[in-house]
Amino acid sequence: MKSTTEFQKFKRDKRKIVMVTAYDYPGARYAEAAGADTILVGDSLGMVVLGYDSTVPVTVDDMVHHAKAVRRGAPGTCIVLDMPFGSYHASLEVTTRCAVDMLQRSGADALKVEGAGEVIDVIRRLTQVGIPVVAHLGLTPQSAAVLGGYVVQGKDFEAAQQILRDAQACEAAGACALVLECVPQQLAAHITAQLGIPTIGIGAGPATDGQVLVFHDLLGYGNHRVPKFVQQFAQVGEQVQGGLTAYAQAVRSGKFPGAVHSFNLSDSELGRLYG
Ligand code: KIV
Ligand code: NA
């Protein structure tokens, strides 16, 4: 899809929304060629690409830098960009300026923010400004430190009711879609049925209107911990490791570069060289 206005259409037509993260030009090219409906430039960037152990250190400039590369790699795909930790929690005015700046510099189509509470006002304001906003509830990694880590959310009735109420508030505030992360599948199904906007699940079972996974998780690329809810559709890391190891061996043994990788002087120029 080209823009977030198509999200609702997918839900109405009962077509699953395929979302995947990407962080650079080749990743975005592969995602677009695979027919992903939408690409998320997630702040999971911090963990899978930048090597931090949480999303907390990721900055606005980090996000914009990577989103620009993704935009160049996927010019025809709707791109959602995460607002990073702390960038939407000061005043609404500061948040609005930051959001406009992120959108203008990156070329992304929409922004994503985590949580409810005061974030509902953020969703409403940015939507009023004309920025499509994707909400994100359940396990919200930016607040993992206060949620008790990367654990399933909404497991008892009260917590589940709260997530449902938050989801409804996100929709009422104008969110164009809702990411539901790491919640019981029955809760995700119930919320999906209650909302007019599509839900995009990750660790939320099969009933959501779409699915999202982290590029590196689903492709088996990198050494980070892979959550239980991920299916690995390839083992790219093994290919990468094997290729690099073979390269190192070939250089050390003199097998690389070979004749086909080398350029030649003509015989006459060779003669002059050795004069
Ligand atoms: O940053 C990210 O990759 C995300 C998805 C896991 C939803 O927010
Ligand atoms: Na994120």
TrEMBL record:
Its EC number is 2.1.2.11. It comes from the Bacteria. Binds 1 Mg(2+) ion per subunit. Mg(2+) binds at residues 43, 82, 114. Pathway: Cofactor biosynthesis; (R)-pantothenate biosynthesis; (R)-pantoate from 3-methyl-2-oxobutanoate: step 1/2. Pfam families: Pantoate_transf. 3-methyl-2-oxobutanoate binds at residues 43-44, 82, 112. Keywords: Cytoplasm, Magnesium, Metal-binding, Pantothenate biosynthesis, Transferase. One of its GO terms (molecular function) is 3-methyl-2-oxobutanoate hydroxymethyltransferase activity. InterPro entries: Pantoate_hydroxy_MeTrfase, Pyrv/PenolPyrv_kinase-like_dom, Pyrv_kinase-like_dom_sf. SUPFAM superfamilies: Phosphoenolpyruvate/pyruvate domain (SSF51621). Its main location: cytoplasm. HAMAP family: PanB. Belongs to the PanB family. Homodecamer; pentamer of dimers. This is 3-methyl-2-oxobutanoate hydroxymethyltransferase.
